[in-house]
Design a protein that fits this description.
Elements lengths: L13 H5 L9 E5 L6 H13 L14 H7 L6 E4 L44 H9 L11 E5 L7 H12 L5 E7 L7 H4 L3 E4 L5 H13 L8 H10 L4 H13 L5 H16 L7 H8 L4 H19 L11 H10 L2 H16 L7 H14 L4
Helix pairs in contact: 4-5, 7-9, 10-11, 10-12, 11-15, 12-13, 12-14, 14-15
Length: 376
């Protein structure tokens, strides 16, 4: 039992952490749950624990052995991470004082021409990366212990990459453990799900999540956020503390070129536009927000419409309680039948959010339909 811990594990995931047993660990686990609740941080700590070479099984990861040191600097030869370029900054890596590109473990590869940084980061895991990782599994581990393959987000794998993974799960190599993460387990192939032990990552109770956030914020010098702002973003993000922290930090750093900053600003503009109801200028709105993360914008739309539906039917606003007066005004103007139809359209769009044909065209179509729900 891994009973120690561990500052890296948030309190709401501690029960799951404490249930892990090295002596009977399956060859593949599929950890799933809402985005932004700490699954990735949990998986990184779990991978390090499974690679730790300490003789004391109750103290893993020990953070003192050679394996832990290699892992922390992103150099452990038996840790392979398959994540999109957009997620590689989340992996363990060494801290270099120079301006050279940072090494991100086995997951990082330079561009074909040897240059890095200028090209737009890819959001998918390529078939080449998957095959390269899988083909090397036939060779024994470098340290003679476990070998860990972490894949996140699993639902982002293309069908050819998923089939390559499936073959390895059907006949897993010795001492190889797959740690698979998914925000939407319903989008994972049933054949892959059936070959993994499914683990659900819970969302924290509201006060526990808020307390954790405040503690993280207090650790950063000069990072000041009011309690009301924290609670507002917490509700907007659906109670996902890690997503809330990233949003607040991006706002604090004010990096206008940062992808998350761009997305947050776009989400704010989207909300302001949707708050105008039938007067929304959907063409202008789509133009201003189409460079942001499409999945994030869809989530914002869904949460806003969820609150509109709830208020229309006499309920409370879950995600945007500070906008109740606006929601109440819109609820009086909305055509309920068209509102329900728009909700179905959003649900359908979410199914293909990772591979949209064209962000701007998709957004224009949805925002135009949103305007129509206020037509009696």
């Amino acid at each position: 039992m891994l009973v120690q811990q561990k500052s890296q594990i948030p309190p709401w995931l501690l029960p799951l952490w404490q249930s892990m047993d090295h002596s009977r660990f399956p060859n593949a686990i599929l950890l799933h749950g809402q985005s932004g609740i700490g699954k990735f941080a949990f998986a990184i700590e779990l991978a390090k624990s499974l690679l730790c070479e300490s003789s004391d099984t109750s103290e893993k990861p020990c953070n003192h052995c050679e394996a832990c040191h290699w892992f922390n600097t992103g150099n452990h030869p038996d840790f392979i991470a398959l994540v999109p370029e957009t997620h590689r900054k989340l992996l363990p890596h060494a801290d270099y004082e120079s301006d050279e590109p940072q090494k991100r473990g086995r997951a990082v590869r330079e561009d074909a021409d040897g240059e890095a940084g200028d090209k737009k980061e890819k959001k998918n895991i390529t078939i080449e990366e998957t095959r390269s990782a899988i083909e090397g599994l036939g060779i024994g581990s470098h340290r003679g212990g476990n070998r860990i393959i972490l894949i996140y987000p699993l639902e982002m794998l293309r069908s050819d990459s998923a089939n390559t993974l499936l073959k390895s799960l059907e006949e897993p190599p010795a001492n190889t453990i797959f740690i698979l993460l998914a925000d939407r387990v319903d989008r994972v192939l049933p054949t892959i799900r059936s070959r993994c032990r499914l683990l659900t990552a819970p969302r924290p109770e509201r006060q526990i999540g808020l307390d954790w956030l405040q503690a993280r914020i207090d650790e950063i010098p000069g990072f000041k956020v009011s309690s009301s702002d924290i609670e507002s973003v917490y509700d907007e993000q659906g109670g996902a503390p890690f997503a809330v922290f990233d949003s607040l930090l991006a706002r604090h750093n004010k990096d206008e070129k940062d992808d998350l900053t761009i997305t947050i600003q776009a989400s704010r503009h989207l909300l302001q536009s949707m708050a105008t109801g039938g007067r929304i200028n959907w063409l202008e709105c789509a133009e201003k927000i189409n460079k942001a993360r499409y999945s994030f914008l869809l989530s914002t739309m869904q949460r806003w419409i969820s609150d509109v539906q709830s208020v229309t039917q006499g309920g409370n606003a879950r995600y945007y309680p500070k906008h109740v007066p606006t929601l109440q005004t819109l609820a009086k103007q909305v055509n309920l039948k068209k509102l329900m139809h728009f909700w179905k359209s959003l649900t359908q769009a979410r199914r293909h959010e990772n591979h949209p044909l064209a962000n701007r065209i998709q957004l224009e179509a949805l925002l135009s339909q949103y305007q129509q729900i206020f037509e009696r």
